[in-house]
Structures are given as C-alpha cells and as structure tokens.
Amino acid sequence: DSPEIKDEVLRKDDRFLTLLKDVYVESKDPPVQVKDGGGEHLPSKQEEKRLTKLGHLEALDVKKVPKGKISLVEALTLLNNHKLQPQIWTAEKIAAEYSLELKEVNSLLEFFIPFTVLEFRKETKKAITSHKPKELT
C-alpha cells in the first residue's frame, strides 16, 4: 500500500542484474523409459478366438474365448465329464476339443476336482439320540 515499498519492488538493481546475466542454467531431461507391460493393454496382434462349447449353459457364460484358454463354465463341464467318463474324456481328447496344451490339461485334471453331492434317503439317516452324561466321581 505504501508508495516507498512499491518503488522498492519496481526498482531495478543494476548489481543484481549483472549477477543474473552471469548465471547460465543447462537442463537435460532424463531419458524416457518405456515400461514393459507385457502387452496387456495393446496387443501386438489380434488374438485368435474360438466359440465356446457350452450346450444348454450357453446363456451363463461368454460366447468367445482366446485359443488356449477356457471359460469357467467350460472348465466345470470338462471336469465333470472327465469325472463321470474318464475313459472317454481323456486328457488328450480334452486338449484337442478345447484347444489347450496337454500339460495344462493334466494339471487341471490333477489339481481341480469337482465336488460330489450325496443325498441320503430319510430311512438311512440315523437319529442322534441324547444320552445322559456320565457322572464324574
């Protein structure tokens, strides 16, 4: 607000001006590094896809998957088929049918086993009878 301060701010100081002329700044940007994302976002080529083999469960899953991969419904279906008919649904047939590698199919069949639901008829169920607790002496 005061005129003295305003004049002081706007006044050029020749001594500082000569010092400023002697200053030379050189700047270099660091080299640009390209992050390798493994091609996640920008595929280098168009992936080859295949239609899924879902039968009556078609509405529950995706319609196309990349070759070498299977959908969740397909995985459950092939595991169940192998469990029910292992002589027909061998690892080789599954690999050929779903365009998978044989070693991956063998690992899938070894480590993933679908659950079995057992339902007991009422006449075979045993009722739990209560008993008197033993008295400690």
UniProtKB/TrEMBL annotation:
Which InterPro entries does UniProt cross-reference here?
A: NDUFAF4
What GO biological process, any one, is recorded here? mitochondrial respiratory chain complex I assembly
Q: Which residues form a coiled coil?
A: none
- Stored Pfam families: UPF0240
* GO cellular component, as recorded: mitochondrion
The similarity annotation says: Belongs to the NDUFAF4 family.
Subunit: Binds calmodulin. Interacts with NDUFAF3.
**Could you tell me which PANTHER family the record lists for this protein?**
NADH DEHYDROGENASE [UBIQUINONE] 1 ALPHA SUBCOMPLEX ASSEMBLY FACTOR 4, UPF0240 PROTEIN
UniProt protein name = NADH dehydrogenase [ubiquinone] 1 alpha subcomplex assembly factor 4
Gene of this entry: Ndufaf4
